[in-house]
Amino acid sequence: MFRRLDETGAAVTVYVEGEAVTVRAGDTAAAAALLAGLGHTRLSPVDGSPRAPYCMIGTCFECLLVIDGVGSRQGCLVEVREGMRIERQKGARVVP
Amino acid sequence: MNDDCDLLVVGGGPAGLAAATEAAALGIATVLVDEQATPGGQIYRAVERARAPSIERALGASYQEGAALVARFRESKCDYRPGHKVWQIDPDGRVFVSDGERASVIAARQVIVAIGALERPVPIPGWTLPGVMSIGAAQVLLKASGLVPREDVWIAGSGPLVWLFAAQLAAVGARPAGVLDTAPPGARWAALRHFAGAWTGREWLKRGLAYRQQVFGAGIPVITGVEAVEAMGDGRIAHVRYRVAGSWRDAAAAGLLLHEGVIPNVHMAMSCGVAHEWDARQGCLRARRDAFGRTNIERIAIAGDCAGILGAEAAALQGRVAAFGAARALGRLDEAAARGRARPLHDALSRQESFRGFLDTLFPPHPTLLAPSDDVVICRCESVTAGTIRAAVRTGSLGANQVKAFTRCGMGPCQGRTCGTVLMATIAQARGVSPADVEPIRVRPPLKPITLGELASLAQSEVDG
């Protein structure tokens, strides 16, 4: 749905659903998921419907992701780090 | 780490930055906490970030104005804490924050809440499908990451941001599928009643017309008089349907970006008891406050768009005025000095208010947005439809809290931030009363999800003293 016009900034490798994706420092985890063409980023715990980032400003909570193994992270508020693991949140958060 | 300060500012957008800069210059020990990693808020998001010159130009002069505001803030003595979410704010000025790992309490003698606006929710059929986002979201991706929507993405809505964003895309050579203009044609004539406001904002209006011309000039298709929009698809959006003059049309779509204006983010101020009222013109809640942004809660003031939509320029003015108000409350300025310093800012603010009256009439909230049809989801978190809410009203739930208890509308992780206004308006419509007569959702901490580990770190630091 989106393409990158600007390659300014340091390259960072993250793993979106296990796939290596090159993004830029300052990008958010939600942006990385969108760039990776992930489609849906979570399944609603209520009805299982697929959802994806909507507001990108920390309000809607649609971009909840599992980041480095921690569930229910707001993907639009987390900046990428080298080696970050970004995964879909399927249903309710699993408490380890 | 628990500490105290004279003034705590929540939010790093124009209002918060201006408030903190002004207060620090007055020698007030000021802390600014912000959820974002860098200063600027959403309007000046990532304004310090180095980017390609073509994108820098496309973001335009009004965006670049934010760079000066941020630079002055960086030079100030304010204690800046980015990446901190506020999860509880008490009327006595204690503010509970977390950096994602450790929680702490800041005890402030004065607090200025300046958390800005959010986009009005656009509850249309299919708006929960992946690929449907807000225009503001797409603009954040352009500012922060240099991303643009592909050719098969549609833009739909009404309001200044629609044209600004489409013009920015045109300027960087991106070609979205088209713009579906949902502004009701009659609004232009109604807006003429606010002639004085239009005159005050004539420079801005000229800019707005230039945006439109850029979009047309770039050959981006524009469809005006769009009465309704729907997203369709299985698992993600595949088509957009829209109605013009009573007949439906269909187009392939890999994405749909929606925008119908912005509303104040009232969540934090509501949680600590700041009095709010329904603003009929803007179709949203707004805080009750005096000319210095002071509220019914002695220690809590409010500034910028979270107190009522006036835009970034006005937000910065309000931030400075609120800093003078805080200085007066802290005994750093006497009444006459505070009023004297605020006077030119108040004059500038009243010009902004007059222009806003014109803008609000030009881009009124579409009636179906405040009362969607029965099958449309209102609460995205809990998948609650308008029909379910109306059924609850029919069985005697007259306020938002009763409807919430019976339907779970507003009970998900966003805590009603997104659906709150639509819920109130839908209940009002079902009862045949004004939304002003509907009790809003009661907001309780934690305002943001925090882990037990974060909570435990707070207890430990309290033990350590």
Provide an overview of this structure.
The complex is a heterodimer of chains A (96) and B (465). Chain A is built from 1 helix and 8 strands. Helix content of chain A is 7%, strand content 35%. In chain A, strands 2, 3, 4, 5, 6, 7 and 8 form a 7-stranded mixed beta sheet that branches. Chain A is mainly beta and 96 residues long. Chain A is globular and about 40 Å long. Helices cover 39% and strands 21% of the residues of chain B. Chain B contains 16 helices and 22 strands. Chain B is globular, with a radius of gyration of 22 Å. The interface between A and B is large, with 43 and 52 residues.
Helix and strand topology:
The complex is a heterodimer of chains A (96) and B (465).
Chain A: E1 2-4, E2 11-16, E3 19-24, H1 29-35, E4 42-43, E5 50-51, E6 64-67, E7 70-74, E8 85-90
Parallel strand pairs in A: 2-8, 4-8
Antiparallel strand pairs in A: 2-3, 4-5, 6-7, 6-8
Chain B: E1 3-10, H1 14-25, E2 30-33, H2 53-59, H3 61-75, E3 79-81, E4 85-89, E5 94-98, E6 103-113, E7 117-119, E8 132-134, H4 135-145, E9 147-149, E10 153-157, H5 160-171, E11 178-181, H6 187-191, H7 195-200, H8 202-217, E12 222-223, E13 226-232, E14 239-244, E15 247-252, E16 255-259, E17 262-264, H9 267-271, E18 276-279, E19 284-287, E20 300-302, H10 312-329, H11 335-362, H12 367-370, E21 377-379, E22 384-385, H13 386-394, H14 400-407, H15 420-431, H16 452-464
Parallel strand pairs in B: 1-2, 1-6, 2-3, 6-20, 8-16, 10-11, 10-16, 11-12
Antiparallel strand pairs in B: 4-5, 5-6, 7-17, 13-14, 14-15, 18-19, 21-22
